[in-house]
Structure formats: structure tokens, C-alpha cells
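ARCHIVE CARD
Drawer: 12
Card no.: 0347
Subject: one protein chain, sequence and derived structure
Cross-reference: see card 0346
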Amino acid sequence: MNQIDLVPTISMLLGVPVPFANLGSLVPALVPLKNTEKKTTHTQQVALGLALNSAQVKKYLSTYSKIASLPSKEVTEMEEVLKDAVAKYEEAIQGGEGKDSIAYREACALFKIFLAGITDLGRKVSLLWLLLRAFFCRL
């Protein structure tokens, strides 16, 4: 877990949107085990939280990529993972397998892969920006 992961987790717990520029990922272990009001399972809550978190990160990525050069191969790979995650999540919602189905768990895993990949990409881009800034400040 990283510090940036606390923001989406706290946002979900409070029922507020994740801040636009946050690249953190929901921490499933901190999601309450049961939601008696909505009668949803822990897995459903985590899947929903990760879906919303991924949508927010995708929106940020789309906006950021319009003004900055991002490695297109890595972005495309992450977009494919997100597409698969969304398809699996929709399958879980529509499927009659139950509230704690394998499809929900697979969707969670794919959302986590997407979020981890984007976080790594963000670190690479930030590191490159810092190195270039340091280089040009010396000139």
C-alpha cells in the first residue's frame, strides 16, 4: 500500500468522488466487510469501488495525455486491461452466479492490474519529468 492509496479508500468510505488527479488505488482490506443498508457483499463493494476508482484514473489519464506525451504502448496495454475489467464487471452484474461470484473477483483483479499499471506509468513519467527538469535547470 502506498500513501496515494489512502485517498481513494477514504473517498469511498465517505461516499465522495476520488479527487481528479489522484492515481491511488482503493485498498480492499479497508473496505467494510458488510453493508447492511444495501445488502451487498464485500466483494461487490470492492468491485464497485475499484470500478469507480478506475474510471476516475482513466478520465485523468485521458485528460493528461492530451497535454503530455505518454508511452503509447503502455497506455494502450492498460486501456485493454481496463476494457477487460469493465466487461468482466458487467458480466458479474448481469450474471446470476450470486453476489460473490468469480466474475466479481476477476473484475477486481483486472481493475487492480489497471490501477497498478497506471501508477507505475505515472511514476515513470514523473521521474522522466524530474530528470529533464534537473538537466535543463543546469543549463
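Annotation on reverse: The helical segments are 6-14, 42-67, 72-94, 102-138. The chain has one domain: 3-138.
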